[in-house]
Amino acid sequence: MGTKYSLESKFDLAIVGGGVIGLSIAAQCAKNGWRVCLIDRGAIGKESSWAGAGILPTGASGPVEDPIEQLRQLSDQVHEEWARWLYDLTQIDTEYRRCGGLYIARSPAERATMRANCMWWDELGIEYERWSLDQVSSRCRMLASGGLASGMLAPGGLADPSGPSATRAEYYWVQRDAQVRNPRHLIALKAACQALGVSLVEQAQDLSLQADGTSIQSISLKSYETGNLLKIVADRVCLATGAWTGPLLKTLGIETGIYPVRGQMQLYRFDRPPFECVVNEGHRYMVPRQDGRLLVGSCEEEVGFQKGTTQEMMDQLASWASSLCPMIQHVPLETQWSGLRPGSIDGFPYLGTLHPYTNGYVAAGHFRHGLHWSSATAVLMDQHMRGHKPLIDLEPFRLHRGNVP
Ligand SMILES: Cc1cc2nc3c(=O)[nH]c(=O)nc-3n(C[C@H](O)[C@H](O)[C@H](O)COP(=O)(O)OP(=O)(O)OC[C@H]3O[C@@H](n4cnc5c(N)ncnc54)[C@H](O)[C@@H]3O)c2cc1C
After folding, report:
1. What is the 260 CA–ligand 1 centroid distance (Å)?
2. What is the pLDDT of residues 332-372, one digit of tens each?
3. Residues enclosing ligand 1, CB less than 6 A?
4. pLDDT tens digits, 284-333
5. For 215-273, how does the pLDDT look when each residue is reduced to its tens digit (9 = 90+)?
6. Mapping DSSP to helix (H, G, I), strand (E, B) and coil, where does residue 366 land?
């Protein structure tokens, strides 16, 4: 006797992975009329997508050829529309806003990187301004001018503010940079999915994919709530399992270049926002939320699937943040956490068909940009899975490219 499964009704699309990518695809496909099932082995929207900062740097103003910039540009447009759409549908305010981004370069290496950035922004037609220290200080009063002017020597260590590097710190302002409060965005997406009739399966246990040589026939799992074994059958199956996509694809005999990259984060509690914009320096940033909470992040650590924070990184983040905003030392550190970004070997996400499975699809590997690129990913995957020509050519994002067999 084989194992007894109860068969769930048949779907147009089953998505495995309920982070921002899976949720966005589910919402978009359900909006366009498909019967969708979204399955997660944990709680929906609680992994990397929850852990992130929600920074959405603006995209190019005109036509662009670079595939990543095309993705950024489309995401930028779709996020703006979705913030309104999600609010109308769910009454949840995701705090999406074009808050602006301040970019600070204190060390010689940061200045060199910023100059390259500026050349790229010029090419893309992204508007920015070079600011003086006075402009920064008057716009962001809580940033200390001493800290702003001094060059960083080592993580947390500041150069002499009167030394030679002091006068050379540079500041750039991008008015159209945006942010979204990602935990709220996820709650809104989940509510939208529910309103659109998406079947949500959380805490799925022992999930496995059944496939023959050319198609994925079903997804079997054990329900956490009832203990029942379920078999989910769908015309199409899309994997959106973030950093964990590699192990799942291995069960189908497919290798990817996706690997986990840990990022750590701190959350401080001010009475009101210490400044309005996102403050960036290299890979570090501060993101003010409207209720006075301030996120400080982050780092890139290749430690496998190991989550958790380290005292060393917490000290580095606190030291960096207080060098720019000394008030941080006087407000409570509310909490700290880490998340596993889905890194990809060449920096491009994997979007498209899961060859050799003609009804299998993948949307994963968005690394530091998944919250941003999720909206474009949803639009493009919906078009691709329907057999329509996507707005952006997905060829550069195909699974089997260059360094992936
Ligand atoms: C500290 C930090 C800061 C960040 N800041 C930003 C930012 O400012 N802007 C930005 O755009 N991006 C940011 N990111 C990156 C962004 O969060 C990720 O790129 C994005 O969340 C990836 O979304 P995802 O849906 O692919 O993955 P996840 O959110 O990790 O979701 C994957 C889901 O799949 C489920 N799953 C995994 N394996 C299985 C399985 N076998 N069966 C069933 N379910 C499974 C998991 O439980 C999880 O819910 C940040 C990330 C971190 C960690």
Report:
1. 10
2. 999 999 999 999 999 999 999 999 999 999 999 999 999 99
3. 16-22, 39-42, 47-49, 51-55, 204, 207, 240-244, 248, 263, 265, 297-298, 339, 341-342, 364, 366-372
4. 999 999 999 999 999 999 999 999 999 999 999 999 999 999 999 999 99
5. 999 999 999 888 999 999 999 999 999 999 999 999 999 998 999 999 999 999 999 99
6. coil
If we measure between CA atoms, which residue out of 107, 111, 113 comes closest to residue 150? 107
Q: How many CB atoms lie within 10 A of CB 124?
A: 18
CATH of 101-175+259-344, one of 3.40.50.150, 3.40.50.2300, 3.40.50.720, 3.30.9.10: 3.30.9.10
CB 267 within 8 A of CB 298: no
User: Euclidean distance between the first and final Cα of the chain, in Å?
Assistant: 39
Which H helix or E strand runs over 146?
helix 145-149
8 Å CB contact between 372 and 57? yes
